[in-house]
Amino acid sequence: MAKIPFQPIGSERSDFLRETSFQLNTGATAQRVDLLEERRAAVHAGWGEKYIDRVHAKGKLTARERVDALRDEGAPIREVGTFVNFEEDFAGQKSPGAGVVTCFTKIHDRWVVVIANDNTVASGSWWPRTPEKIERAQEMALKLRLPVVYLVDCSGLFLPEQARSFPGATGAGHIFKKNSELSDAGVPQIAGVFGDCIAGGGYMPIISDRVVMTEQAYMVIAGAALIKGAKSQNLSSLDIGGADVHVEQSGCADARVPDDAAALSFIRDEIALLSSSAAPYHRHGAEPSAPLHSPMELTGLFPANHRMTYHVEEVLARLVDDGLFWELIPHKGQEILVGVGRVNGLHVGFVANRQGLIDDKDFPGAKKPAGILYKEGIAKTSLFSRACNDDGIPLVWLQDISGFDIGVEAERQGLLGYGSNLIYTNSTNTTPMCTVLLRKASGAGYYAMAGMPYDPVFQLATPISRLAVMEGRTLAIAAYNTKLNEDFEIATEDPEERAKIEAGMQAMEERIEGDMDPYQAASQMDVDEIIRLDEIRSWLELFAEASYQASGYRRIKNPRIWSLHDIGALTEEREG
Fold first, then answer.
1. Residue range 75-119, pLDDT digits in tens
2. How far apart are the first and last CA of the chain?
3. Rounded to whole angstroms, how far apart are CA atoms 313 and 294?
4. Most buried of 239, 296, 447, 504, CB within 10 angstroms?
């Protein structure tokens, strides 16, 4: 086997960061972390204790209790879409998490995607963006070929907002298209029906390979109330489509069980029949290992001021096994760091934005800012991304980027063409990719670094992420450019007009700063989840293991025949 030339990366925190600076950074982040935990708890509570009690009074579990009982003991639960619809009003009501729990967890040591209607929020109704959230989870499962478990307890559309969730291209009907695509790709789907399963909620389980119903469950195209109005028949929904109908007569379900616990046990037993994870095979004899330096330190590595810099090598050292990393093409495009490390013993490619100042090769002895993409960095990233795709290495993109280089020289060098090449590469990759917005995610650089429009398996934000085309002050200057002079000062001597322009620019800057808030992005599904900085490693463990779990659906080369070895050999010869 060709030797992978891993080298130590990073160092002890005390070697590069003063304790006072670390504490200052940690303190600045702590308030945002506390807010994140507080908001997570609020979403997890659904509509509150009263509605949880109502569920329990029926002898049923809540959605999150079902997920907890379904998973392996001690297995993590990684929710995605926690903040969809965050703080939005719909007909005077809130829909925490869009009324559905979507998450990754492990069953019999296999990663699965779970989609569970939150029966504490309007009986599991589908709100605006509920279909999109379900479809996003289905798409994640499809990309990784992970089994999907549906825990259905859904009373159909939230009708006062039906126009926003029923008819569109990603409306409720698209869920069933995703069901079909998963089935077509051979992805196992198992559905447990625990209660209401009306209209669209009734269609969702049917394409699944296994359907189990509790005695309280029913699946119907139309509920008893609608049938009574339309056909003057006085029936209950259980009479119309209960377990005895669909298991014993229609064949739309496979098994009937007495209660939630029995249904969850049935689902676990079905998952146990599937192929085990291929991840141990793809470790090639390596053992999972923790980073040499604690991921908990990440909370204090990022300066409170987003304009200040840090060493991305130290971030990587707290993400990869044993602090070992193979950096490729290190002397070209220094604004970008690319290379391979192991995460839980599995090979993962990394692309990360460097910060601070780097050498300007066009002007010997001069420096230029990193955090921006220049010609060499773009070309290096394209080459590395294509090679990882060719070799079947999952890719992690660590974003902290202000955008592309601009100006006469940038246009002369053809950055538009190089950037288009990178965008084409990331658009056509089939290897799994995930994107982490460490801090800034600005301009076309956000696209180039595999942002959400380029279909990463999931895109994660942190409490300090800032997602926008440009910063608030810069955008205000651009918007009011006709009223400013060449020095970007207000070009009027009229005090009243000056005050009006100043107020307008200030208001725009504040609005843009609000739009850059990660919760705004999460609410409208521009990011999949907001996580703590010290949680990044655990999410990468999920990503790595899930990327290698299924076998036979994508190319995964033996490491001794990687294209990356060719790149390493040629660039070492040229640069050595």
1. 999 999 999 999 999 988 999 999 999 999 999 999 999 999 999
2. 23
3. 14
4. 447
The residues pairing with 103 across neighbouring beta strands, listed in sequence order, are 79, 114
- Residue ending a domain, among 276, 292, 321, is 276
Residues 402 and 494 in one domain: no
- Considering the domain boundaries, does residue 21 fall inside one? no
Q: How far apart are CA 235 and CA 300, in angstroms?
A: 62
The Cα–Cα gap between 152 and 273 comes to 22
Residues 549-560 as b/e (b if ≥16 CB within 10 A, e otherwise) read bbeeeeebeebe
Rounded to an integer, what distance in angstroms lies between the CA atom of residue 130 and that of residue 149? 17
Give 159's contacts (C-beta < 8 A, 6+ positions apart): none
Separation of alpha carbons 69 and 76, rounded Å:
12
DSSP string, 307-352: TS---HHHHHHTTSBTTEEEEESTTSSTTEEEEEEEETTEEEEEEE
Give pLDDT tens digits for 359-414.
888 888 889 888 899 999 999 999 999 999 999 999 999 999 988 877 777 788 87
Domain span at residue 508 reads 472-515
Sign of CA dihedral 11, 15, 16, 19: positive
209 closest CA partner among 189, 233, 224: 189
Q: How far apart are CA 297 and CA 301, in angstroms?
A: 7
d(CA 163, CA 38): 32
In this structure, what token pair is assigned to residue 191? 């559905």
Cα–Cα distance for residue pair 14/73, rounded to 1 Å:
37
Q: State whether the Cα torsion 517-521-523-527 is positive or negative.
A: negative
Question: Whole-angstrom Cα distance, residue 389 to residue 383?
Answer: 10
Measured CA to CA, the distance from residue 71 to residue 73 in angstroms comes to 6
Is there a contact between 515 and 468 (Cβ–Cβ < 8 Å)? yes
Pairing of strands 324-328, 336-343: antiparallel
Are residues 67 and 206 part of one domain? yes
Q: What are phi and psi of 404, to 5 degrees?
A: -90, 155
Query: Is 246 found in the same domain as 179?
Result: yes
Matching residue, tokens 């909370």: 299
